[in-house]
Design brief:
The structure is a single chain. The protein is mostly helical and 375 residues long. It folds into two domains: 70 residues, Histone, subunit A, CATH 1.10.20.10; 220 residues, TAF6, C-terminal HEAT repeat domain (Serine Threonine Protein Phosphatase 5, Tetratricopeptide repeat), CATH 1.25.40. It is built from 16 helices and four strands. The protein has a two-stranded antiparallel ribbon with strand order 1-2. A two-stranded antiparallel ribbon has the order 3-4. α9 packs parallel to α11, α14 crosses α16 and α15 runs antiparallel to α16. The longest helix is centred in the N-terminal third of the chain and has 28 residues. The two termini are 32 Å apart. 23% of the residues are buried.
Length: 375
């Protein structure tokens, strides 16, 4: 029990109770337990990722003390607002006080006597004369809000035209244009400045097109083409790309409500892309591979999730390799197999759709077992 408890808390920083307190501050009084836990895990991961990135900046600067500037640079990489009000050279002494919940640490701010300050005879140092230096630049830009992004970055007119042509070709009905678009995204070394807009397009597109199997497949093809481009730096956007792929892999898509739609193939394609992202982008800083394994195991062992989500978790683990199957699938296989058999043995007409979905999971599990035994 002690080892299990340590395993549960090893990666935790923020508890679900903290999330509820923050929610109450902004007016959300009834936050469900599972939602609070999910938010706590997500915030924990993002905080750890931010601190580890800042630590890399500190090491590259050959320093042993992390500064606010290190954190600001790390935040800049993840499109997070910087910390205002503190400078790198400022000393920030912390104090602690005990509460019922534990020790609380805070910055020790000095009290300033307004009366003494007003009556002081000390004259502030003259900073010097104010001067203005002009610099002329001419360029044409279109703000990212035109593209449906919340970023304040800008894109050139030529870049905007390229963006519109590529997205139109990807979602259009012409296979020839789509192949040309994918080929260019895969090899063009000059699209780094437009890459964030494509990521935003994909992230919003998978959710708005969850009813359209073709469009979801095309968006996954766009992810595959972009991740194949060796000129692009994926790290700042890997979380958004993984989230979009995981949505296609694990979520109950609108298109999956109709048994005629072959969303199973879509989930297999998503699993292949997810495994490629894990191999290419996982590193000791982001713990991407480990996070993916833990998420897939959590979905597979969640009995409230539908079989299409379980199928996505199984094929996802299968694409991540035999070691992932041995560590994250096989320990839960006996319990899951027994539950699956109960559904497969029910031949009633009312169980037809559910049994059909369970058969897909059953077939995927057989392939996984074969792969494990072959290795």
């Amino acid at each position: 029990m002690a080892s299990k408890a340590s395993e549960d808390t090893r990666f935790s920083v923020l508890s679900a109770e903290n999330v509820r307190l923050y929610a109450e501050v902004i007016g959300v009084t009834k936050l469900e337990d599972n939602l609070a836990r999910s938010l706590a895990e997500d915030v924990t991961y993002r905080v750890r990722h931010l601190l580890q990135t800042a630590q890399q900046f500190m090491k590259h600067g050959k320093r042993r003390r992390m500064t606010t500037e290190d954190l600001n640079r790390a935040m800049q990489l993840t499109n997070v607002e910087p910390v205002y009000g503190y400078g790198s050279g400022e000393d920030m002494p912390f104090r602690s006080t005990s509460t019922k919940e534990g020790d609380v640490f805070f910055v020790d701010e000095k009290e300033i006597g307004i009366r003494e300050l007003a009556l002081s005879t000390a004259v502030p140092t003259d900073p010097g004369k104010v001067s203005v230096r002009g610099k002329y630049e001419m360029y044409f830009t279109v703000h990212a809000t035109v593209l449906g992004c919340s970023s304040k970055a800008a894109i050139s007119t030529a870049g905007l035209e390229y963006y519109e042509q590529i997205t139109k070709a990807v979602l259009g009905e012409s296979d020839v244009c789509r192949r040309m678009a994918f080929s260019d995204l895969q090899s063009n070394p000059k699209i780094s400045c437009i890459f964030p807009y494509f990521v935003s397009f994909i992230a919003s597109g998978v959710k708005s097109c969850s009813h359209d199997l073709k469009q979801l497949s095309r968006l996954l093809g766009m992810v595959s083409a972009l991740t194949d481009n060796s000129s692009l730096f994926l790290d700042p956007y890997v979380i958004q790309l993984v989230t979009a792929v995981m949505y296609c892999l694990l979520e109950t898509l609108t298109v999956s409500l109709n048994p005629v739609n072959d969303h199973w193939r879509l989930r297999r394609d998503a699993a292949c892309i997810l495994a490629f992202l894990s191999r290419k982008c996982s590193n000791p800083v982001n713990y991407l591979h480990q996070q993916l394994l833990m998420t897939l195991r959590e979905v597979l062992t969640d009995e409230s999730r539908p079989y299409c989500s379980h199928f996505g978790a199984v094929v996802g683990l299968m694409e991540l390799g035999s070691e992932a199957l041995e560590q994250f699938l096989l320990p839960h296989l006996s319990t899951y197999w027994h539950q699956l058999q109960q559904v497969l043995e029910d031949d009633s007409s009312s169980n037809g759709v559910l049994r059909g979905e369970a058969l897909h999971v059953y077939a995927a599990l057989l392939v996984c077992i074969k792969d494990v035994h072959s290795t």
